[in-house]
Design goal:
Largest sheet: 5 strands, parallel
Structural class: alpha/beta
Radius of gyration: 17 Å
Order of helices and strands: HEHEHHEHEHEHEHEHEH
Oligomer: single chain
Length: 243
């Protein structure tokens, strides 16, 4: 399925809901339930392959993505973290080979000291990906709100908006300030940023209906679906062990 089909589903006020999958079977279940897109979670893919989050070798990630795209007939967008150190051309080529039409691309710095990639450098990386694959749907993840980044709470919204503007100007199709949950901050994004806004659905965040009312264009569950599966299996195992 085409990137154009994925892009067209981002409608502010009628958000695209993405219950993130991690393997071919979970992807099939998402598609069979009627969701028009399958998205992956890097955390969930890593866990399914036996790696900690952020440590999965790219060969294994793309092999898993190829298995997913073979199993479903809907567009697939993949959480590709910070691009695994691949050049823009190689990243886009490997997406095409795996059959993936969109990606999450985050601004955590994986090259040196913990923190965020310089805003200008990240914008240049986004522009390079879009030049290599103009049709690729790029969701620019903004990591300002992550506790490990260490940006003071009072500065987070302003810094994330600054980054969002730069990333959209560089060609990002949508922006994803992960862990942002305050309705006032969401409203500021919808008002000030021209691209659709992606919000992570999690405890403490507004509901799907509330996010739609706020004008959000895309809602992700991240590793939430795998957490439900993990909790269900753990409960059943405890029941069996005690029987």
């Amino acid at each position: 399925m085409s990137a154009q089909a994925l892009r067209a589903l981002h409608q502010p006020g009628q958000p695209l809901v993405l219950p993130n999958a991690w393997d071919a079977e979970s992807a099939r279940l998402v598609a069979d339930a009627g969701f028009p897109v399958v998205a992956t979670s890097s955390t969930a893919v890593a866990a399914s392959l036996g790696y900690p989050d952020g440590k999965t070798p790219p060969d294994e990630v793309f092999a898993a993505l190829a298995r997913i795209t073979r199993r479903v007939d809907v567009p697939v967008t993949a959480d590709l973290e910070g691009g695994y150190g691949l050049s823009a051309t190689e990243l886009v080529d490997r997406m095409a080979t795996a059959g993936v039409v969109g990606l999450n691309f985050e601004d955590t710095n994986y090259d040196g000291e913990p923190g965020l990639t310089d805003i200008s450098r990240q914008a240049d990386r986004i522009a390079a990906i879009k030049a290599a694959g103009p049709d690729v749907v790029l969701n620019a993840r903004i990591d300002v709100f992550l506790p490990r980044i260490g940006i003071p709470e009072q500065d987070q919204v302003a810094e994330s908006l600054r980054r969002a503007r730069a990333y959209v100007a560089a060609g990002a199709d949508c922006v994803y300030p992960i862990f942002m949950a305050e309705p006032a901050a969401i409203s500021a994004y919808v008002k000030e940023i021209s691209a659709p806004l992606n919000v992570l659905l999690r405890p403490g965040a507004p509901s799907v209906a509330e996010l739609a009312t706020l004008g959000v264009g895309r809602i992700s569950l991240g590793g939430g679906l795998m957490s439900v599966v993990r909790d269900t299996i753990s409960a059943e195992l405890k029941r069996l062990a005690g029987s």
